[in-house]
Design brief:
By secondary structure, the chain is an alpha/beta fold. The protein has 2 domains: 131 residues, Aspartate Aminotransferase, domain 1 (Alpha-Beta Complex); 246 residues, 3-Layer(aba) Sandwich (Aspartate Aminotransferase, domain 2). Helices cover 43% and strands 17% of the residues. The protein has 15 helices and 14 strands. It has a 7-stranded mixed β-sheet with strand order 3-9-8-7-6-4-5, with helices on both faces. Helix 4 runs parallel beside helix 12. It is globular. The chain starts with a helix and ends with a helix. 48% of the residues are buried.
Length: 406
Amino acid sequence: MADMMLELVGRELARLKESQTFKYETAVEGPQGGVVTVGGKDVVMLASNNYLGLSNHSAIKKAAIDGIRRYGYGVASVRFLCGTQDIHLELEKKISKFVGCEDTILFSSCFAANEGFFASLVNEKFGMEQYKDVLYSDRLNHASIIDGQRLCKADAVDKKIYQHADMNDLERQLEEDKGKGYRFRIIVTDGVFSMEGDLAPLEAIVALARRYGALVFADDSHAIGVCGRSGRGTPEATGTLGKIDILTGTLGKAIGGAAGGYISGKKDLIAYLRQKSRPYTFSNSLPPSIVFGASAAFDILMKDRTIVTRLHDNTAYFRREIKALGFTILEGEHPIVPVMLGEAATAQAMSARLLKAGVYVKGLWFPVVPKGEARLRAQVSAAHTRKDLDRALDAFARVGKKMKVI
């Protein structure tokens, strides 16, 4: 049996290597930053979620080291046994204040947070023998949202998908379901869609939710620390701060770039999730170094907006200049800048050539994005200097002309 399994796995691995879906990993020799070292060569990093440049920030590193000195390396426990330290409660309060919610619960990642939310709520009868819930999910939602919804019992929930950011389609479905007697109706969306770099129309979503008696769930992983004047995410950018019922996010991107996730919302909901959410109940709590580092990152954001302003300025500059070179990008204002190339082979080849030319950027193609919409996903950071961005743009120009992309 084991031999058969290994043979089948080996065949599938060989097939993947021959396909255009195989994911090759490139080792970075040192810390993340605007410029990193790959193969002994300095290259401009345009593939990182290190939006604010905090993953190697001196204050974050100092805080993380202080966390180990004061609280040790790890907690060796889940939260409800002996894994809750005062610093976990303090960070939860700090996140709640920052995102405009009553309370927050920490997870090992936002993937775990999203997996831990839906089944905890939908699968629970709450004393009702007969009930059914409904989830309305954007077609381009993150894999963690999709996996979280898969954990819901089929007889407990109807799962519906609306076209990406299409409020007419969402309203049509809400209207059709108005008289069906659903217990919970939840509209589910990413705050920022990671493959497109566009923001969810949260103002319109909130308005529809209020009209049809639904809750709003938003995953703000690519927006926390990034969007809005002070980095409070998609709700701040769309004028819905404090109006989102369930807000999830990560500490592993702009907020220091290490690990950790959270769910923020009403106090009773968060208290309930502490009892029922399985990834929370059965996973070790975040280690002190990450708690201290993330807390320091929020302190930086709350004291000084210039780092967010620098990110926005860098993003606007890169978007303007890459278009001026003749490349086609998906319009927007987020530091995710999809450079559209069409074919997977083109994206693969251009990514490899750009690395040789001094730019680290990754290609995306089917099935990650639709067929014919292969792209390079450039990601701008506050850690980039104007010189870094100009160097990257020069490489794009040279490689693009050689490949006859521009």
